[in-house]
Amino acid sequence: MEEDQLILSLLNLYLDEQLEKESDPESLKESEPSESAPPNLEDVEEVTGYKFRNKELLKEAFTHGSYKAADCQSYERLEYLGDSVLNHLVAKLHFLAYPEMAPGELTRLRAANVDTEALARAALKYNLQKYLRHQKPLLQAQIREFMEGIEKYPSHSHGMIDPPKVLADILESLIGAIFIDTDYSMDDTWKVVERLLQPLITPENLKLHPVAKFNEACQKMGVKPQAKDFWSKTGEIEIYIDNELIGKGMYKLKKMIAVNRAADDAYKNLFGKKDGGIGG
Fold it and tell me: Which domain of life is it from (predicted)?
């Protein structure tokens, strides 16, 4: 059977997020250092409301690996630490706030609040990208595309727009730097993090992932969707029920986003737009 005619189940098209992270086009070519100096890093203290005792930590938190600097290392270690601290803080918040919530539900709620899109939105809200020392030529174009996506989806899109991973990275590295600067105080770090992440996603406004919502609706109807995978050639995914096209999505850079958009389009066409689709 020809590859472009291969029928795949929708669930098989739902890619593992870790694979997406590994294939994220963040490893862009380096360019020569820019002559223009970045804004004063101390302005970050006004944005966050936190005054650093160790200014070197602040500098490190905003130094990308592409920036060849002799004065400090990149933010990668701080990002690693900040990611762990953030997950702990949000898990603690939800564990105490929702004592009756099942572990699986807690996991979904935490993930929605700390995934790449949520953190990238927070970083963009406070213009943290202005302070990043980097040599990534395409970053500004990625940020512009993300901003356009935010206009379409004012709240979390749940996988329909492509957030630049570096935006989430600098928020996590900033959290890591604050955690160290507070002598590893979770409570003091949370005071800053809680404000940066507002508005937090709650059980009341947590939406299902596009693919999960579409599949759940199809199961209730007793129908079995199928998908044609044209992504490698055109960037498109098409979804069918009984050989009738009911939805399609396109995004050439990441297959998962194309799948999400196809599922959302199919859901709208099948069940109407009364709820604004899946990510709206």
Answer: Eukaryota
Identify which of 226, 215, 227, 225 has the alpha carbon closest to the alpha carbon of residue 255: 227
Are 126 and 47 a contacting pair, CB within 8 Å?
Answer: yes
Per-residue pLDDT of the chain (280 residues; tens, 9 = 90+): 433 333 344 545 544 333 444 344 444 344 444 434 556 888 999 989 999 999 999 999 999 988 877 778 999 999 999 999 999 999 999 999 999 999 999 999 999 999 999 999 999 999 999 999 888 888 889 999 999 999 999 999 999 999 999 999 999 999 999 999 999 999 999 999 999 999 999 999 898 889 999 999 999 989 999 999 999 999 999 999 999 999 999 999 999 999 999 999 999 998 875 444 444 4
Q: How many CB atoms lie within 10 A of CB 88?
A: 14
Helix runs in the chain, H state only: 17-23, 43-48, 55-61, 76-97, 103-114, 116-125, 139-152, 165-181, 186-196, 210-221, 231-234, 255-271
What is the rounded distance in angstroms from the CA atom of residue 2 to the CA atom of residue 5? 5
Residue 176 burial (CB count, 10 A) = 26
* 8 Å CB contact between 159 and 260: yes
> Which residues are registered as beta bridge partners of 250?
236
With 0-12 CB in 10 A as exposed, 13-18 as middle and 19+ as buried, what is 210?
buried
| Residues 6 or more apart whose Cβ sits within 8 Å of residue 178 | 48, 50, 52, 188, 189, 192, 193
**Alpha carbon distances (Å) from 250 to 19, 100, 261:** 19, 39, 7
Bridge partner residues of 227 (DSSP): 8, 239
- Cβ proximity of 135 and 34 under 8 Å: yes
To 10 degrees, the CA torsion angle through 121, 29, 145, 46?
Answer: 30
Q: List, in sequence order, every residue forming a beta bridge with 3; answer none if it has no partner.
A: none
